[in-house]
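Deliverable D4.2, example record:
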Amino acid sequence: MTEAIEGEDSVINVLHVFSTFAVGGPQTRFATLVDRLGPGYRHSIVSMSGNTDAAALLSDRVRYELIPVRNRRRNILGNVRRFGKQLRRLKPDLLITYNWGALEWAIGNRLGPRLPHIHIEDGFASDEAKRRFKRRVWLRRFGLGRSTKSIVVASRFLERIAVEEWKLPRARIVYVPNGVDIGRFSAAVPDADRAFVKRPGEVVAGTCAALRPEKDLVRLIRAFAACNQAKCRLVICGDGPERPTLEAAAAANGVGDRVVFTGYLDRPELALAGFDVFAMSSVTEQTPYGLLEAMTAGLPAVATDVGDIKSMVAPANRPYIVPLIDEAALTGALRTMLGDAALRQRLGEENRAKAKAEFSLDAMIATYDRLFRDAIAKK
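Output generated by the structure prediction step:
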């Protein structure tokens, strides 16, 4: 944590509650956001899982504290009482909860101190990709009651679910798309020492993702293998529990020597600069950072049609965003893209222009700053 600054009384104290503070999309966005918000904020962070690996993403400029908690799973009432008491003790200026796993804090706040509260939803794991659980729907309706100032959603897909399934008031739902640092991803050059060595004349399809089941990267490996392109490689950047399964899948599909696993990269732009095609095979997404960064880097995309992906990419790229259940279509789109350099160039340029126009990091930061300050002002 950094030292105290002048004007301490004017500093906004925010308590952030995550289901986990492991490295992922929401945690990466959070690290960027709190860095840009500056010294006018001080942040307390709760990880319900106890994992705090994402703290390594926070810069020295961020004033933060990690708050340990006792989370007794399947003891909702006990957790609600305990978290309500902790809120009374901590007395933050603003409570921010993230996704389903933090909802007990929202309920504890509604039944207890009723502090200014904002809830941020980023989507679902694979268990809710097709159908939402009734118990979670009802708890969202109750927990995100009138004491919640805003429910922030990262996609239009989530916005529809919040209104139509969760029955939350449309007036309190705020769509804030993820934003990307245009300069960082549009000007990078490949770094062979930190990512992978691109061979002369080869075409590289790549993806950047946490290696978790909902990314369904086994499907991407099968599609890549079915393309049967000898001078192509698939590069998978990221780490996670699925890596042994994915390595086995690459070997089983006969492409073990043409699928590269880089592990976690703290500078994904260095890998993206060496890609020719960005590929995704997820069963659930909203406004994925990996795709935004790839678009900003000037890459065309082949992906499954989940969340907002089809509307994110440039119109000319949309035919290559394929139905989730159609693996043959994924293979065909990837084969076409790998074999057509002119198509890749044209779609990459259009994607970069769309990312610059619609997914500005500065706009995202300014929107969150306004939402936070407005919630406190209405206390």
